């Protein structure tokens, strides 16, 4: 079954949002996005990593190596204050866009 | 986003790059492991789970690369490419070395030649506003540009409104009194505003003042920097002191700067004001000066020319006896100065440009061969995720690296070539080419080198990209890709080879024609026997020998003493030696023939009785001069065949008389003999009518001596000078040279030799590069077709068929190259027509010879690969793939 691809430019926002709840490692982030979207949003999971590097470089997330409950080393990402601000910005931009699209679609035919 | 944070973060990662990589790898591995575990937990078999996890993750290499790109700086990939390119070139060291060498040669030669062109034709003359300076001269039917007479100059100067100043100059020579005797020195006589008009500031002392050139003025002199250093040790005390020229005291008033140059009088060491009118200058009909004028603001050269022509026409009406047919000519001074070398330099520049083109094409085709042999590497890298932009960048980097190395080496070669070329110009010629001192690696040459470097670099970088973009990278992995790519390369490489061969033809034809011209020039009929002939110039000081009888006595004594030397057969004295110039002319009219002021201009030579026999000039009719043909008897002349044919067609000229235009009884002279034409003018000048007068009738001060020897003529030269100085230490001697050497060092011979050797050199390099290029194409095509050839032979093709197949391909390329080349060559040769002597641009023998040479060389080069193809073992060829 073909599933819809992620809207371009929304991956960063989804990662940041996912990290508002709790610090997570990459796999956790991917699982979390999948679960909260009821399996609708799928990403090529590996593409998380270039995105995470980008967020790290911008200073929107921090990373730290910790042990998982299964006792394996994993890198956990935490949202920073700047990241929270950036998330707000992206969400509001996204909502504006969705609202605009909605207005176009609700136009009577 | 904050660029500073970004930069700082990238920088911090730069120093722990290895850790960054291993952490990323670990993170990604962890991710896949977790996914795999989760799949297994749902009951999937482990093998399938592994694959599913990997699929869900995506192309790990590509993603890792993306992450790397995020954190690296742009220049890092460049450095990476450079390292890779260097490694590539080191693996193919022979290829790299060849390419760099060829590029360096092509670039070095063209930059060197350009620096000469720049100094001669592009850099302005070292005067103030040099483009406002005009050469002002008279002109007549025989001479497009002839000397001004002093009276005409004075009228022109007085009447014209076009020039803010109009000056005159003329050459002369003096005997300079030195500690050891006297020495003849070249000098120039100029009007007082000469240096101001050029815009030259003196280094020391003062310039001539206005009016200091009036007759009766003080004897003053300005020295060139060179004469000042050489003769007076550069002492500043010399200003205000006097030196003795021709026995008279001249006060030194100034020293010219080191950079001063004036090509028309390049050899002059002393500049004196025109002052008193010499014998010639008292007559309006005697022309011995040239004019140089500075245009007034707003006056065009054309307007100045019109005005001077109008003034000349007015003078022609006013003085019909002397000015009949005397027009005016005004042209940029630069044209006079650089005129003679212009065609040579442009030809050499074009030739070196063609050489550069061949070199670049050669390297480009080398690059093509290489990109061909790297198709698999490219295909694999492409399959692993390298984008075509990324691959292109790699090739560009390699091209850049190669081109930079080639250009750097080229700069070294050009510096070296400039030095060699400068040293190749003989001293006698260099004196007349003062621009040589300005030749060097300067702004223009640097710009030229830079643009060449950019062009070649572009070519080097683009060739492989072009190659890549023409073809689907994936094709390289497949078996079938080979033949398609082979075809592409053959087409591209074949075009390049045709271009190379065509250019080689142009250069070979040019060299052939120049060589033939040179041969013709040196074998032009001289009318004399130049072997075993020693010559030198001599000046008899006017104050020691003021009277004609004294000079005659001196010349007789010189002839007697020199003839007595061992090995000397005969000795002649003349006013001008042969193969100098159609100059020192006289206007004649034929007594008893109708005359309407015709301008009958002939060369005039004063000769001693033994002179013509010494040259071995052939007497056709009548007799030559005898010892008693002196002022005690009526004046007689011997004429050359050209004069006889022009003025006495179908008549016997013996006994006929000629005179000056005004039929002055004193000027009437009788023709006593006719000699076969002796070439008095330059080797490539027309033969002129010439009259020989008896030297003992009116002896001159400056004469030339010709000595016929039995053995080595060079060996007697010092002996001649010694003997003359024994006779009178005050006799000035200079210019001792054998006739053969003199012929070889005339300006036309030098220009021809110079261009022949250089263009010939370029042509040989071009021939080699072109033939090597052809070999490359054929050899490559054979290697590509090994399998095909194997199949053909397995199916029964004969070896001869294979030979034919390969040679046919080579033959077509060669034919195309030669055909196109011959067409272009005729055009190119016509453009350099001024350099050709006695040979046409479409000289069939030369064209045929070039076609044969290039054809033979090409076929020989293609025979090797053809032989290899014919020796292919069918079974091995089929198995090899």
TrEMBL record, chain A:
InterPro entries on file = Metal_resp_DNA-bind_regulator (IPR052509), Tscrpt_reg_PadR_acidobac-type (IPR017799), Tscrpt_reg_PadR_N (IPR005149), WH-like_DNA-bd_sf (IPR036388), WH_DNA-bd_sf (IPR036390)
Report domain Transcription regulator PadR N-terminal positions: 15-87
Pfam families with a match to the protein in the record: PadR (PF03551)
Q: What is this protein called?
A: PadR family transcriptional regulator
Question: What organism is the protein native to?
Answer: Telmatobacter sp. DSM 110680
Automatic annotation (TrEMBL), chain B:
GO cellular component terms, A-Z: plasma membrane
Query: Where do the ABC3 transporter permease C-terminal domain residues begin and end?
Result: 351-471, 762-874
Tell me where in this chain the MacB-like periplasmic core domain is found: 98-310, 498-712
Subcellular localization is given as:
Cell membrane
Membrane-spanning residues:
93-117, 344-369, 400-425, 445-466, 496-515, 757-782, 810-832, 844-864
Q: Is Transmembrane helix one of the keywords?
A: yes
Give the matching Pfam families.
FtsX, MacB_PCD
**Principal localisation:** membrane
InterPro entries for this protein: ABC3_permease_C, ADOP, MacB_PCD, Macrolide_Exporter_MacB, Perm_prefix_1
Membrane-topology descriptor:
Multi-pass membrane protein
From which domain of life does this come?
Bacteria
User: What does the UniProt keyword field contain?
Assistant: Cell membrane, Membrane, Transmembrane, Transmembrane helix
| GO MF annotation: an example | transmembrane transporter activity
Keyword flag Cytoplasm: no
* Similarity comment: Belongs to the ABC-4 integral membrane protein family.
Record's protein name: ABC transporter permease
């Amino acid at each position: 079954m073909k599933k819809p691809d992620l809207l371009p430019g929304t991956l960063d926002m989804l990662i940041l949002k996912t990290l508002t709840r709790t610090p997570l490692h990459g796999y956790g982030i991917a699982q979390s996005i999948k679960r909260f979207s009821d399996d609708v949003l799928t990403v090529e999971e590996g593409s998380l990593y270039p995105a995470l590097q980008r967020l790290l470089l911008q200073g929107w997330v921090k990373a730290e190596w910790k042990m998982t409950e299964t006792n394996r080393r994993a890198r956990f990402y935490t949202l920073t204050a700047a990241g929270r601000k950036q998330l707000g910005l992206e969400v509001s931009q996204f909502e504006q866009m969705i609202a605009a699209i909605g207005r176009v679609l609700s136009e009577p035919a | 986003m904050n660029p500073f944070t970004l930069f700082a973060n990238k920088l911090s990662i730069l120093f722990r790059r290895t850790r960054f990589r291993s952490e990323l790898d670990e993170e990604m591995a962890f991710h896949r492991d977790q996914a795999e575990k989760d799949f297994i937990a749902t009951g999937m078999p482990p093998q399938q789970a592994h694959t599913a996890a990997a699929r869900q993750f995506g192309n790990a290499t590509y993603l890792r690369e993306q992450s790397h790109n995020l954190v690296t700086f742009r220049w890092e990939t460049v450095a990476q490419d450079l390292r890779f390119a260097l490694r590539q070139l080191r693996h193919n060291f022979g290829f790299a070395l060849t390419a760099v060498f060829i590029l360096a040669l092509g670039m070095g030669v063209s930059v060197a030649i350009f620096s000469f062109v720049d100094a001669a034709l592009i850099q302005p003359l070292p005067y103030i506003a040099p483009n406002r300076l005009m050469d002002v001269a008279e002109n007549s039917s025989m001479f497009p540009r002839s000397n001004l007479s002093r009276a005409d100059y004075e009228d022109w100067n007085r009447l014209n409104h076009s020039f803010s100043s109009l000056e005159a100059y003329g050459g002369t020579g003096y005997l300079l009194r030195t500690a050891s005797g006297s020495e003849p020195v070249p000098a120039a006589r100029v009007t007082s505003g000469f240096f101001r008009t050029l815009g030259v500031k003196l280094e020391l002392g003062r310039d001539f003042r206005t009016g200091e050139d009036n007759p009766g003025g003080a004897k003053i002199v300005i020295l060139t920097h060179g004469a000042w250093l050489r003769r007076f040790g550069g002492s500043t005390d010399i200003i205000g002191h006097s030196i003795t020229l021709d026995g008279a005291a001249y006060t030194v008033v100034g020293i010219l700067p080191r950079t001063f140059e004036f090509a028309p009088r390049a050899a002059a060491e002393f500049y004196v004001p025109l002052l008193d009118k010499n014998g010639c200058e008292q007559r309006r009909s005697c022309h011995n000066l040239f004019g140089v004028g500075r245009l007034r603001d707003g006056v065009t050269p054309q307007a100045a020319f019109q005005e001077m022509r109008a003034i000349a026409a007015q003078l022609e009406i006013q003085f019909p006896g002397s000015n009949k047919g005397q027009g005016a000519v005004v042209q940029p001074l630069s044209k006079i100065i650089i005129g003679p070398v212009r065609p040579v330099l442009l030809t050499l520049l074009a030739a070196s440009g063609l050489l550069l083109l061949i070199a670049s094409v050669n390297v480009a085709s080398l690059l093509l061969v290489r990109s061909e042999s790297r198709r698999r590497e490219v295909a694999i890298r492409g399959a692993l995720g390298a984008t075509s932009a990324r691959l292109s960048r790699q090739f560009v980097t390699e091209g850049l690296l190669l081109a930079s190395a080639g250009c750097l080496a080229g700069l070294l070669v050009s510096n070296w070539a400039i030095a060699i070329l400068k040293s190749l110009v003989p001293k006698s010629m260099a004196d007349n080419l003062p621009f040589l001192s300005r030749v060097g690696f300067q702004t223009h040459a640097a710009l030229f080198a830079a643009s060449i470097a950019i062009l070649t670099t572009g070519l080097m970088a683009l060739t492989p990209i072009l190659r890549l973009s023409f073809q689907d990278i994936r094709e390289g992995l497949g078996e079938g890709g080979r033949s398609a790519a082979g075809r592409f390369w053959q087409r591209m490489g074949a075009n390049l080879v045709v271009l190379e061969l065509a250019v080689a033809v142009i250069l070979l034809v040019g060299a052939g024609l120049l060589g033939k011209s040179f041969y013709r020039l040196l074998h032009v009929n001289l009318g004399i026997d130049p072997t075993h002939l020693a010559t030198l110039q001599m000046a008899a000081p006017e104050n020691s020998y003021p009277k004609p009888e004294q000079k005659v006595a001196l010349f007789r004594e010189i002839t007697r003493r020199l003839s007595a030397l061992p090995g000397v057969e005969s000795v002649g004295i003349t006013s001008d030696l042969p193969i100098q110039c159609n100059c020192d002319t006289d206007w004649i009219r034929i007594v008893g023939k109708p005359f309407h002021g015709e301008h009958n201009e002939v060369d005039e030579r004063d000769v001693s009785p033994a002179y013509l026999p010494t040259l071995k000039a052939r007497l056709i009719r009548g007799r030559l001069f005898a010892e008693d043909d002196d002022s005690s008897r009526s004046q007689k002349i011997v004429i050359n065949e050209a004069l006889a044919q022009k003025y006495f067609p179908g008549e016997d000229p013996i006994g006929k008389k000629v005179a000056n235009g005004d039929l002055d009884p004193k000027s009437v002279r009788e023709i006593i003999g006719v000699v076969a034409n002796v070439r008095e003018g330059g080797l490539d000048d027309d033969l002129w009518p010439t009259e020989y007068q008896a030297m003992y009738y009116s002896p001159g001060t400056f004469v030339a001596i010709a000595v016929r020897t039995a053995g080595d003529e060079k060996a007697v030269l010092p002996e001649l000078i010694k003997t003359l100085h024994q006779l009178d230490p005050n006799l000035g001697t200079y210019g001792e040279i054998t006739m053969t050497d003199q012929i070889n060092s005339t300006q036309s011979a030098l220009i021809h030799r110079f261009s022949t050797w250089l263009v010939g050199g370029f042509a040989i390099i071009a021939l080699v590069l072109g033939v090597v290029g052809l070999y490359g194409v054929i050899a490559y095509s054979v290697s590509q077709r090994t399998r095909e050839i194997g199949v053909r032979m397995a199916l029964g093709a004969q070896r001869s068929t294979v030979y034919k197949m390969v040679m046919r391909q080579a033959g077509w390329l060669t034919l195309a190259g030669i055909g196109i080349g011959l067409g272009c060559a005729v055009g190119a040769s016509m453009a350099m027509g001024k350099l050709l002597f006695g040979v046409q641009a479409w000289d069939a023998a030369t064209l045929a010879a070039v076609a044969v040479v290039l054809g033979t060389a090409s076929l020989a080069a293609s025979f090797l690969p053809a032989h290899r193809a014919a020796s292919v073992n069918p079974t091995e060829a089929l198995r090899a793939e």
